[in-house]
Every structure is written in C-alpha cells, then in structure tokens.
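Hi P.,

Sorry for the delay on this. The queue was packed all week, but I finally got your sequence through. Input first:
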Amino acid sequence: MPRRRAGAAIPEMFRTMLEKPSTRAYPYQKVELPARFRGKLDIDPERCTGCQVCAMVCPAGVITMIDIGTRKVGDKELPVKRPVFELSTCIFCGECVDNCAFKALEMTKQFELATPHKEDLTMRKALTK
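Then the structure:
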C-alpha cells in the first residue's frame, strides 16, 4: 500500500471549502421525496373486506388478521376479520398495497415514525370499522 504525503489532503480541503454543502438542515428545510416514495402504510377501513390477501403476501409477517365478529351471508355465519399492522417490523416493500384488489391500502409520504413506545407503531385503524 503506497504511503501518502502528510499534506496530500490540503488541496482537497481547500477545494471543498468553496462548494455548497450537499446536506440539508433536515428539520428546518423540507425534504423533497421522490414520486414513488414508500412511507408509512395506511388503510381505508371502509374499503377493507378482510380478504386476508395482504397478510398472505407480506414477506415480513407484519400483518395479523383479527376476528371482529361474524356476519350472516345467506343462511351461514361467516367470520369477519380485519388486519392489524405491526409497523415496527414493516420493510415498506409495498406488496400488500400492490396485491389489495379493493385499493384499501396505500403507502403514504410520512416517514417520521420515531417513537419512544413500540406500541405506537401498531396500526389498529381497520378494527374501528
């Protein structure tokens, strides 16, 4: 491995001193997100039918289907299930959104998910329908 001279970094230091910074003061300047950015998952409980496709295709196992009761279809009682999302382990792949035939799921632009309590990242929005 070749040895470097003691002052070899000085020209580079002077060159970069005159350039504009490549970073942004994030909390103070708005971040421009790409058009296809995948942020926090969201669900429209009115559109969710409980078909369980989202839970089947989730590679991270983030989605759990919870029984919320039954409904009568004809002369049969069928269980009604709704998804609960564990966003703390979500990998934001978008498989659930892409496979939802009823367009009940979407990836939002929200990316600030830091919280002191892990329970805050459990989304039970679909259970309120």
